[in-house]
From TrEMBL:
Residues of the Amidohydrolase-related domain: 332-412
InterPro entries found in the cross-reference section: Amidohydro-rel, Metal-dep_hydrolase_composite, Metal_Hydrolase, Metallo-dep_Hydrolase
Protein source organism: Fodinibius sediminis
Alphabetized Pfam families for the sequence: Amidohydro_1
MF (Gene Ontology): hydrolase activity, acting on carbon-nitrogen (but not peptide) bonds
Alphabetic keyword roster: Signal
Coiled-coil blocks: none
Descriptive protein name: Imidazolonepropionase
Record Gene3D superfamilies: Metal-dependent hydrolases, Urease, subunit C, domain 1
Signal sequence segment: 1-31
Entry keyword Signal: yes
Phylogenetic placement of the source organism: Bacteria, Pseudomonadati, Balneolota, Balneolia, Balneolales
């Protein structure tokens, strides 16, 4: 009887928490949508255009027609059907891209039913972040009004977490937001190091654990390679063969094995990075990207020689107590100097809005403003194969861009207007609503 009562209490508690979470999500989603995005034809004039690929155009014009950029330059013929935006003294930039986030996959960290970035099990290649994106996430408007118009959002749990998705930050469904539904597979590299000062394992135990993890990964990979070859053989056959049994996890690996989508390897420490590089060289048909790489500066030449792009942040503390505090800020520059293509990836959820400042630190600590701008626009677009659509301001590209009153890497700069896929986005977020709500709280008008 006692156990039944306890079980009843447990399920009632879980139900109550679920109800609260759903209520909060519904309330916040309803509260934050106060305006509709505008769509049509827009003419942004008298503006400094930072094209990224064709330099800077002073006193320029950008024409948007539907979802695309129609014209970039000077002296455009602007007809009356364009909505005119005089941006004198302002700047227009390509929309920023954060190449590694969990945005849209988690709403309230303390409420389990709102956390969709993690699944049970070590190997989940069949998990797709795309199917779990919440278009009404409160964090999305907060992010986009700071100039971040598209992101890679990825699952993060286990060894092989699943497939990341590349999305625009405007839309009512995941389908309407998707740029690349399956943008990459995410792999958390097993460490060959102790987990910290409290890790009491011997060096032998650490090595044994590492070898066990690598064996599990290699076993899955070998099965996936064999499965892919078997399926290709069947598909290329005469049709007389019996169709092999479909295995969900191995089927999900096929576009990885064949090189159609890359693998993002999250790895930080020097020894682990070198191990990961050596492992990637055994799989030449698959494309790999390194993420995190907090000690990348220690092995920058090796990363460059392996031709592996890196997704990096700057706002973290050094891996080792004796490292200079500037190393996280210098890491992107040191990788770039060695010949590595770098892109900004915050690894955040609600703080993806700070992506421009990660780039700003990198610019200040050696990367330079021009390369830092590429690291948050063109470079990630090239890494994920969407530079034909995104990453710069050019005719025919998708109209993801924003207007600012200054350098967007500076926190005091105001982002005045954002366009995503040609939609003129309302500059409203939960932050702006709370600011307006509490600016004059309790004040009485005379």
């Amino acid at each position: 009887m006692v156990s039944l009562v306890m079980m009843k209490k447990k399920y009632l508690k879980a139900f109550a928490l679920s109800g609260i979470a759903v209520f909060l999500l519904a309330t916040t989603a309803q509260a934050q949508i106060t305006e509709k995005a505008e769509f049509g034809k827009f003419a942004i004039t008298n503006v400094t255009v930072h094209t990224v690929i064709d330099g800077v155009i002073e006193g320029g014009v950008v024409l948007i027609n539907g979802e695309e950029i129609e014209f970039v330059g000077r002296n455009a013929r602007i007809t009356s059907d364009y909505q005119h935006i005089d941006a004198s003294g302002k700047h227009v930039y390509p929309g920023f891209m954060d190449a590694g986030t969990q945005l849209g996959l988690q709403e309230i960290g303390a409420v389990q039913v709102t956390r969709d970035q993690a699944e049970l099990g070590e190997f989940n290649p069949h998990v797709r972040a795309f199917t779990a994106i919440n278009p009404s996430s409160v964090s999305i408007p907060v992010t986009r009004v700071n100039g971040v118009t598209h992101v890679v959002s990825m699952p993060v749990s286990g060894r092989l977490s699943g497939k990341a998705t590349l999305i625009d930050l405007y839309g009512y469904t995941p389908d309407s937001m998707a740029i690349s539904p399956n943008a990459a597979m995410h792999l958390n590299w097993p460490t060959a190091m102790k987990r910290g000062p409290h890790d009491q394992r011997s060096d032998k135990e650490v090595e044994e654990a590492y070898q066990k993890n690598i064996k599990q990964l290699n076993d899955l990979w070998e099965r996936a390679v064999f499965y892919n070859e078997m399926m290709e053989s069947y598909q290329e056959g005469s049709g007389d063969q019996e169709r092999p049994e479909v295995q969900k996890k191995l089927e999900a690996m096929r576009e990885v094995i064949s090189g159609n989508i890359p693998v993002i390897i999250s790895v930080d420490q020097k020894k682990d990075i070198l191990n990961a590089i050596a492992w990637t060289e055994k799989h030449p048909k698959t494309h790999f990207i390194l993420a995190g790489v907090q000690e990348g500066w220690r092995v920058a030449d090796e990363i460059a020689e392996a031709d592996l792009p890196c997704l990096v942040s700057t706002l973290y503390t050094p891996e080792r107590d004796y490292d200079n505090y500037q190393r996280p800020y210098q890491n992107p520059a040191m990788l770039h100097k060695a010949g590595v293509k770098v892109a900004i990836a915050t690894g955040e959820i609600e703080n993806v809005r700070n992506a421009p400042y990660h780039a700003g630190y990198a610019a200040t600590y050696g990367l330079g403003r021009e390369e830092a701008l590429k690291a948050i626009t063109l470079n990630p677009a090239e890494i994920f194969g969407v530079d034909d659509k995104l990453g710069s301001i050019a005719k025919g590209k998708q109209a993801n861009l924003f207007i600012s009153d200054g350098d967007p890497f500076e926190p005091m700069t105001q982002i005045e207007q954002v366009f995503i896929r040609g939609y003129k986005i309302p500059m409203v977020s939960r932050h702006s609503q709370l600011y307006e709500e509490y600016l004059n709280r309790g004040a009485e008008t005379n």
